[in-house]
Amino acid sequence: MTTDFEKIKGRYSWLCDKINEYNYAYYVLNESPVSDFDYDALMREIKQIERDFPELEVPESPTKRVGGQADTTFEKVKHAVQMGSLQDVFSENELRDFDRKVRAAVSEPVYIVEPKIDGLSVCLEYENGFFIRGSTRGDGLIGENVTENLRTIKSLPPKLINAPENLNFLSVRGEVFMPHDSFKKLIARQEEKGEQIAKNPRNAASGSLRQKNSRITAERELDIYVFNVQKIEGVKLTTHKKSLEFLTEAGFKVIPGWKTFRDIEDVILRIREIGEMRGTLPHDIDGAVIKVDDFAQREMLGETSKFPKWAAAYKYPPEEKETTLLEIEVNVGRTGALTPLAVFEPVNLAGTTVSRATLHNQDRINALDLNIGDRIIVRKAGDIIPEVVSVTRRAENREPFKIPENCPACGSLSVRDDDMAVTRCPNINCPAQIQRSIEHFCSRGAMSIDGLGEAIVELLLEHKLIKNVADLYKLTHEQLLTLPGFKEKSASNLITAIENSKQNEPDKLVYALGIKGIGERNAALLMEKFGSVEGLKNASREEIEATENFGAILADSVYNAMRDLHMLDLLSELEKSGLKTIYTKKAESKKLSGLTFVITGTLPSLSRDEAKELIIANGGKCSGSVSKKTDYVLVGEEAGSKLTKAQELGIKIITEEKLREMLSS
Fold first, then answer.
1. What is the pLDDT of residue 70?
2. CB-side exposure of 114: number of CA atoms within 13 Å?
3. How far is it, in rounded angstroms, from Cα 424 to Cα 445?
4. Backbone region of residue 367 per phi and psi (left: phi > 0; alpha: psi in -120 to 50; beta: other values)
5. Residues in Cβ contact with 458 at an 8 Å cutoff, skipping those fewer than 6 apart
6. Which of the four, 63, 256, 334, 528, has the lowest number of CB atoms within 10 Å?
7. What pLDDT is attached to residue 102?
8. What are phi and psi of 61, to 5 degrees?
9. What is the Cα–Cα distance from 508 to 445, expressed in whole angstroms?
10. What is the pLDDT of residue 72?
């Protein structure tokens, strides 16, 4: 008789396969076989099963796509096959020279031409059809293990499809890249937060893939194209063309636009075509690659100490245009950052007409010595984001441009961050940034007001029912019923959620205020030390700086925020509305400080989340996978592969009873 657990196990396996199938259709085939609602429902069911039965969780689970626990190091990986580089060529005559050398060694070669994606080269390894490890190129011989970060890329197959049964091992090479849309979103977030701006999609992809926390990698929306079989066991391939067809059938997103040619002049025409397409592609390319198709001919051609003789990479020159700077606009971002924008006579770059380019901050303007009327050189950074490169001729009677001292949106006196080049409007009620500040205030981890997402906040502002976060606590049931889409139940639920948020500990409120540099943990540290919002308002710079995890810059940020008149007025309004401002949460112990735990199996009296909270509340850390950095593995009934790995690595294994002993000692 089939047990309930076996039914759940079978259901879980089916759900994982189905979601991975939908991901393949959407992210590789550009098809939508299921509605977003149905997809989300299946994902919620998978997450619930993994919460209730953590021992069922598998590495190829779709939940890995959203990232997991933070990591601190990347293990070194020795590549089974060296990940070499290609010889660069910069002219059509050099391509013809390449062809002559090839024909001198082999007869009637067939060439394959592919776009050269501008990203980060990685190696993907599969055993018996399952993705087991991914690593960066490194120096070609040794790279870094970035498996968990690669799992967040939705077009990467966690399990091969249509793979032959005798395929024991497969190692492939691919290029991780950041699509243009993802890069634009990243730039917008960095601009708003006053962070250092990513130079181009390639740098952004590289930095994203090496994040210590795979959740951040997942947010960056990376993608990957696979273009080469490095090593294969159980299947024989004789040409590059056949290997690309094999990879496509196995479920990989293979390098697009590849074509075969027998004549070098046709190769050159194709490379020109690819170059002309640069401005229309959804991602960066920095060239085109020409390869000999036949593997036997490749063996005959051989390699030099640096490059294979059977391939070359043609590099396209960057496109730049000269124009006239007409104006410098200053826009206010949602976090108050004042961002200058160059407005110039339109030029055509990388296939599109552009007339604006961000100047980022005053330091960038000063470095360019830029002013209205100058003749300037403009290009697209990474063929996407327009940027001003230099000044070729300066306007007469010019004066240095300065970002205004007063915010263009509200007139408040702007301030310059001491630790950054950002000029910022400090007014938390500034119309240009109010919506984002309200969304943050309501978000999970802050005041956690369910139902107050971006669309509802925008609706409330549009109908002038609120103008700041304090007004949320003055909303009435009757007011909500006047809004489109609101019924009795939805209005009651939102009013209840707002009312319930008043009971949050004040560390949630401090985080919700959006003070620069103050995350959830730092907010909790402040409340643990000062005991109340009032205590924090009265704290000196020196007292704040003496708080654990704080330094001078962070202390200044808090000290100044707690003396800003807009902030003080807001806090007064929130306190009148009944929000909790005295910290009553039990102080955390340090009994597990510095220790990392992994939980597997079903514990006698604690759920997985409860066990995590208990460990974290006593200073410990929890990880989703077992490694040499793990100190203890907490096991329950039906512990899975994590227990096996812990035993192999010699990690200490404890029960719930032992954990409680550690806490009571």
1. 42
2. 23
3. 25
4. alpha
5. 435
6. 256
7. 96
8. -60, 140
9. 7
10. 43
166 and 235 Cβ atoms separated by less than 8 Å: yes
Helix, strand, or coil (residue 362):
helix
The stretch 66-73 carries a mean pLDDT of 52
352-407 residue pLDDT tens: 678 888 888 888 888 898 988 999 999 876 556 788 989 999 888 777 888 888 89
Residues 119, 175: contact at Cβ < 8 Å? yes
> Position of tokens 């759940």?
8
318 has a pLDDT exceeding 80: no
Distance between CA atoms of 479 and 256, rounded to whole angstroms? 53
Are the beta carbons of 270 and 259 closer than 8 angstroms?
Answer: yes
Between residues 298 and 140, which one has the greater pLDDT? Answer: 298
pLDDT digit string, tens, across residues 251-281 = 999 999 999 999 999 999 999 999 888 878 8
Supply angle C-alpha 468, 471, 477, rounded to 5. Answer: 140
E strand or H helix that includes residue 27: helix 4-27
Which token pair is 141?
Answer: 């011989």
pLDDT value for 479 = 93
What gap in Å lies between CA 573 and CA 207, rounded to an integer? 42
Distance, in Å, from the CA atom of 310 to the CA atom of 301, rounded to the nearest integer, reads: 6
* CA within 13 Å, CB half, 49: 25
What CA dihedral angle connects 257, 258, 259 and 262, to 10 degrees? 140
Give the position of tokens 């997942």.
218
Q: What is the pLDDT of residue 435?
A: 81
8 Å CB contact between 497 and 444: no
DSSP 267: H
**Long-range contacts for 256-262 (Cβ within 8 Å, ≥24 apart)?**
256/115, 256/225, 257/114, 257/115, 258/112, 258/113, 258/114, 259/112, 259/113, 260/110, 260/111, 260/112, 260/293, 261/110, 261/111, 261/112, 261/113, 262/108, 262/109, 262/110, 262/111
For Cα atoms 447, 451, 452, give the angle at the middle one, nearest 5 degrees: 60
Please count the CA atoms within 13 angstroms of the CA of 562 that sit on its side-chain side: 21
| Active-site residue identified among 7, 64, 78, 116 | 116
Please indicate whether residue 101 is annotated as part of the active site.
no
At 345, phi and psi to the nearest 5? -60, 135
Residue with more model confidence, 417 or 528? 528
CA distance 54 to 454: 33
Altogether, the residues listed in the chain come to a count of: 665
User: For residue 207, is pLDDT > 90?
Assistant: no
Mean pLDDT for 414-426 is 74
Tell me which residue has tokens 């194709």.
270
- Distance in angstroms (rounded) separating the CA atoms of residues 652 and 642: 12
DSSP state letters, 133-187? EEEE-TTSSEEEB-HHHHTT-TTS-SB-SS--TT--EEEEEEEEE--HHHHHHHH
Q: Please, which pLDDT band fits residue 500 given cuts at 50, 70 and 90?
A: very high
pLDDT of residue 105: 95
Separation of alpha carbons 114 and 111, rounded Å = 10
- Cβ–Cβ under 8 Å, residues 256 and 84: no
Reduced to 3 states, what is the DSSP secondary structure of residue 562? coil
**pLDDT digit string, tens, across residues 209-251:** 888 778 888 888 999 999 999 999 999 999 999 999 999 999 9
What local confidence, expressed as pLDDT, does residue 5 receive? 82
User: Are the C-beta atoms of residues 63 and 158 closer than 8 Å to each other?
Assistant: no
- Give pLDDT tens digits for 34-47: 776 677 778 888 88
545, two tokens? 């700086």
